[in-house]
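Cross-posting from the modeling subforum.

Setting up a comparison between two proteins and wanted a second pair of eyes on the formatting. Protein 1 (sequence, then structure tokens):
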Amino acid sequence: MKKNSSTFHQVVPFNYKEDKLLQLDFTAANEALTDEMLLNTSSFSAYIQKLLDKKYMYGIGGYNEHRTIYSRSHVFDGDEEPRRLHLGIDIWGKAGTPVFAPLDGYVHSFAFNDHYGDYGATIILHHQLDGVIFNTLYGHVSKRDLKGLEEGQYVAKGTEFAHFGEPKENGQWPPHLHFQIISEMNGEKGDYRGVCKYSEKEKYLLNSPDPDLILQMMQYATRDKND
């Protein structure tokens, strides 16, 4: 993917010469993330929007990040160990933000994972690049983006095929896109873990390499000392 970095289409609209990116921290180090706020989607959304209102186009980050925010949903609980390690990159912005296919592909699968804290509307594309087969997952998109989709449907590079969903259709999260690269789907359809147990970190990171290989956005992200 590195050698093809100049050929990928942007996944979201972004002009690195003009637009600012805020690298967000959802670990225990961010003391602003109180349980009270996280359990209230409106308050959580207002927190994100307040940060972005400082002239940031998007909030971004999260790959290989051990996050406390998943305590807000039983989806991430386990009998012995909860899931807390994030396997994708999240891009936080306005509902309706368009999402484009970074390269040619086919619809692998899609689903409406309608549980509190889950992906909500989800689309997975299947790709082949220089003989390497892999998939890209787009979580928390708009439910209307699933209408008319079919498995095996061709999606050309640069096609606008999805949009950031509203909380009511994206698992009750502030509007954002979860973007993840997945080498092997292991029989999954319309879903794949975007958060794993820390004890399974090595296995899952191997199957989900850094999404910035395609996004190429993290180099432009900055931290706000007042976030």
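Protein 2 (same layout):
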Amino acid sequence: MDRRKATFIGIGAQKCASTWLHGVLEQCGDVRVADGKEVDFFSYYFDRGYEWYERVFDAQPEVRHRGEVSPSYFIHPDAPRRAAAYASDLHVFVCLRDPVSRAFSNHLHEVRKGHVTGNNQVFETALENNPLYIEQGRYAHHLARWRDAFPADRIHVFFQEEIYADRAAAARRVTDALDLPALEDFLDRQVNESVRYRNAALGETLWKLGNIARQAGLGRAVETAKSVPGLRHLRAANREGLRDVVPPMRPDTEKRIADLLASEVDKLEHLLGHPVPWPRFRGPHAALKDYRTDKI
């Protein structure tokens, strides 16, 4: 059998720029990224076998790299062992962000998907109903399993805050990790905005059309089309900013989550061997990060 094995995976965490990572990899000429951002093989569909997994790449043999991005892998207890058994030399891309910001963005995502409605749109109410808001922010705990399964030099950790500060430089880190040429015409696009569609069918149709075009190498044409007056007005009229709908997190809740995860952040810094770019964890008087930033 012609094994077209994956050479990289993106593992999350959820709401930490994994869609940006997928977009960068899509633009690399010698890379085939699986259709659809989340394959979830090493988490939810491992029983389907390697042949099923490798069919999703659908690439010619001469393509140098194949892979996919599934945020479910980061916290799944069996995913690191399964991935290492499949290919011990995989490049593993990890994207992290301030865990308090991540928790609120997770909530916005659930609202946008329609999983959280009514009074549960209040973050504090939803927080009591969904323990994964906090569990997914236990970065050191989850990353340690991946460090046990893969050599440290195969795990590439990115911070959303640094990506947002210089997306092109972060994209170069991705291509450098895979020993690929830098993207000369890097397409910087904003994805996964905190919006929902008033007409869900129209929003889904526009999203699917854009995704098909990007997979055909027409990503820049998609971004240009968004600025055409008629389409721009149609999109704007159909979009509703979630920040205008969902009440903000209360300051006492923000502090409570930060206190709860402070030891995890400390362990993460020791695991990585360097500080993280999250000011709220730099001491009791550190400036609070804006947890409502959700541009990636």
